[in-house]
Amino acid sequence: MKRVLAIAAIALLAACNQQEAAPPPQAKGAPPPPPPYQMRPEAASGNRLTASDGQRAYEVHCGYCHLTGGMGTNLLTKQRMMAGEPPENGLLTNRSDLTADYVRQVVRMGKNAMPQQTKVDITDAELDAVARYLGKGK
Ligand code: HEC
Fold first, then answer.
1. For a pocket test of ligand 1, which of 114, 118, 121, 122 has the largest count of ligand atoms closer than 8 A to its C-beta?
2. What's residue 24's pLDDT?
3. How far apart are CA 12 and CA 6, in angstroms?
4. Which of 43, 85, 122, 137 could form a disulfide with 80 if both were Cys (CB 3.0 to 4.6 A apart)?
């Protein structure tokens, strides 16, 4: 009985091996072409920001702290309220006292709890666009 089992096991192993050694099914014709890459429009145009992209650059580079609920917004809301201003002024976009130069300076130098943003974080061109967006008219 043991011998029969052993032979059966060997036969089974051999069968498995044979299956593994079988050549893969032949591919018919050329492989299908890859799907077209979905490029963002700005990537297609070299990913350069223009002056009109200030809002987008602000949302991308500053938004995680300065949009609603961000830690920058929360801190500035408290500061503005203590200065007797409405809480909405915690959002930089609601401020009317920011100049473009001030925005550039705070971003490159940092201010209190805000860490300085390097040219790796935001390029000069992007910062110019953001400064014009926040400090518009000044
Ligand atoms: C990591 C979070 C963070 C990021 C990113 C960030 N900020 Fe700030 N920002 C703060 C905080 C916090 C303050 C409040 C600093 C304080 O006075 O304690 C602040 C303050 C400022 C102020 C000063 C406001 C005032 O009343 O004097 C300006 C202007 C400003 N940020 C602009 C920006 C811009 C523009 C960007 C994007 C390029 C940016 N920040 C990115 C956290 C951030």
1. 114
2. 63
3. 10
4. 85
pLDDT reported for residue 37:
66
Verify whether ligand 1 is closer than 6 Å to residue 8 (CB atom). Answer: no
11 Cα–ligand 1 center, Å: 74
pLDDT for residue 33: 75
Cα dihedral value 69, 98, 100, 134, nearest 10: 40
CB 68 within 8 Å of CB 104: no
Task: Give which of 129, 126, 106 is closest to 117, Cα–Cα.
Answer: 106
* Ligand 1, atom 6, residue with closest C-alpha: 62
Per cent of the chain over pLDDT 90 is: 58
Low-confidence ranges of the chain (pLDDT < 50): 138
